[in-house]
Amino acid sequence: xxxxxxxxxxxxxxxxxxxxxxxxxxxxxxxxxxxxxxxxxxxxxxxxxxxxxxxxxxxxxxxxxxxxxxxxxxxxxxxxxxxxxxxxxxxxxxxxxxxxxxxxxxxxxxxxxxxxxxxxxxxxxxxxxxxxxxxxxxxxxxxxxxxxxxxxxxx
Length: 155
Hints:
mainly alpha
């Protein structure tokens, strides 16, 4: 796993055709395992669709996902979302992504009860209170995915 939660994200992931095929196979396997609970699969897909429609920019959404995946040690999700983040191209502002990464970790650590200073630091990077709530949605969505992947040994 190349994502280090103590530093900025590594966006330089280059994937070979074999690595991409392996990732596709691993993803298909994870979905097949999750189909054992159609409600869980359907819930994750619906939540994922909602998260993708938030006002968070794509780089920020992928950063939230990667932060949750790395924290929860879901290697499949880390690999998949590192590839998605890299495919987005260069981040517009790395310090902004670092702010959403830190805020995601703070929300997780405080079970949502971040301090005013932590929220203000997030907002100072151009994010909104709506974005803060959308981070919570992303955390919930990808907690379902990462926990299910780990439970089924998919990652």
